[in-house]
Amino acid sequence: MKKNMRWKRAFLIVLMSVALLNITTLISVNVDKVTVHAAAATKLNTPSITVLSRTPSTVNFTISKVTGASGYRVYRAASKAEAFVYIGKTTSLKYKDTKVSTSRTYYYKVRAYKTINGKTITSKYSAIKAAGKSMSKTTSITAKNSGSVNTITWSKVSNASLYNVYRSTSKTGGYRFIGASKTTAYKDSKISANTTYYYRMRGYRKSAGVKYYGLYSNVVSVTTGSTSSSPVSGNTSDNEAESYAKEVLDLVNKERTSRGLSELTTTTSLRDAANKRAVEIEQSFSHTRPNGTSPFTALEEYGVSYQAAGENIAYGQRTPAEVVEAWMNSEGHRKNILSESFGKMGVGYYKKNNTIYWVQLFTN
């Protein structure tokens, strides 16, 4: 009897041990799973940065979005060999460094961060990106009026591929970009009589995707005489230009409405930009302006905002009907005329030595 009791007691102990072992095993497995999931939730991907522009006083760059990040810490060094120093953080995907010197190259890296239960988690550092030295100040600027044109000249700036020109009718402000030049001179023909204009410019180049801007020049002024005129000159009369431009618009709208498309409208600024381009294609028959820039910079000069734009050019046709027919017989030109992306059109007309130069500028 006692032997049987001892056997039963031993068997019970074994069962309890097995049960405890199973419980321990289950608990260990569950804890392990919780630990694995928690570790996965704390990991942040590595961001990247793209330097957009470098001015004498700023470096601007964007940061790629990292899912789950609360923000991004920014680090900078004056060389790749130097230690990087923390300079700030941002919750935005854009960052502007305003504590820079014109004559230095800067290197940047960032990392994402977030806080979990009072603990800060960070990603790996991004790849290092550089922003080179800014360009020096444009000097020796002069301005001279010759009837219908103001000519601005300046000295060459090292490493500049273009020079951006800005104009105002007030010395103290309101400067607007009016164009760019690959040389050290710019001719401004969109001027009015008996008006004082103020100009300044700065060097520009684009390298490895980064836009570099130099220091602004000093301001120079010039006053036009009573003979200054608008871009529509040569052998062109204002009445003729206005009449022909209206007829081109009417013919274009006839083509559009016959195909169920909406009519195009126009504005004074859009017509002025088109007239400027008509003068320019007499100098260089191309969709690249004489100063080397896109034709759509003419829209910017006249304050025309747009998300979509197109241009048709032609010369030699004697009437609006002839030029519209020529454009409609050309696939690329017809595509612009019938595009649903456009809602406005300016018509440029310029006549010189009995040859007419035509321009259509389209915007949304």
TrEMBL record:
The SCP domain, residue ranges: 249-362
Entries under Pfam families matching the protein: CAP
UniProt cross-references to SUPFAM superfamilies, sorted A to Z: Fibronectin type III, PR-1-like
InterPro entries to which the protein is assigned, alphabetical: CAP_dom, CAP_sf, FN3_sf, Ig-like_fold
PANTHER family in UniProt: SCP DOMAIN-CONTAINING PROTEIN
Protein name: Uncharacterized conserved protein YkwD, contains CAP (CSP/antigen 5/PR1) domain
